[in-house]
Amino acid sequence: MSSKKSAPTKKARTAGPPQGQKAPQGKPQGKKAQQAQQAAAAAAPADTAPDGPRPARITAAAVLAAVEGVVLLGFGVYVLIMGLTGDPESPQQAEMLGVTVLALAALPLLAARGLLLRRRWSRGPAMITQLMALPVAWTLVQNGGGLIAAGAAIGVAALAVLALLINPTATEALGIGPRDA
Question: Could you count the other beta carbons within 10 Å of the beta carbon of residue 83?
């Protein structure tokens, strides 16, 4: 017997099982087979929704985030229209503010949709939106008058969404484990 192995035999041992099949248990896999499985796992959609019903906490957080997004959208449209048709001191600044607020409205709306679909990526944008809302709420409350109610509503909604999203039930429902959180 020769000490050299033929190329097809070596290739068959390191190539691993055909795609879609698991490797036989108990047998060590070659390095290339492990790399191929890791590549296949990376190519698979990693952001699939976990099984089971969606918890009410996730639904409530999604609804609150969506309401915030719709309010921002309405405010952005209002400012944009007033910048175009009204008589602001600086129409360019009003239009830019309207466009900026419209762009900012996309973040909570996308996060709300992701939460409803139980996508794990949606927790980050939803929490960031709430953290950005807290200083806005504080500023509105500090300005007094009719803005106190708006600031209080924004602050309560932001704290509620944050509390809902850091709950272990919500993180598990989104497929975020203790190491991922």
Answer: 20
Residues 99 and 137: their CA atoms lie apart, in Å, by: 21
- Angstrom distance (rounded) from CA 29 to CA 32: 8
Q: Which of 104, 98, 129, 134 is nearest to 115 (CA)?
A: 129
Q: Distance between CA 45 and CA 29 in Å, rounded?
A: 24
CA distances to 58, 107, 112, 124, 130 from 127, rounded to whole Å, are 12, 10, 11, 5, 5
Sequence-ordered alpha helix ranges (H) in 30-90: 31-43, 56-85
* Residue 158 buriedness (CB in 10 A; 0-12 / 13-18 / 19+): buried
**8 A C-beta contact, residue 113 and residue 121:** no
Are the C-beta atoms of residues 181 and 165 closer than 8 Å to each other? no
- What does the mean pLDDT of the chain come to? 81
Q: Which two tokens stand for residue 96?
A: 């830019």
Nearest to 41 by CA among 25, 26, 19, 24: 19
Instruction: Give the pLDDT confidence of 28-49 residue by residue, as tens digits.
Output: 566 666 665 555 544 445 556 6
- Residues 100 and 79 sit within 8 Å (Cβ to Cβ): no
pTM greater than the 0.70 cutoff: no
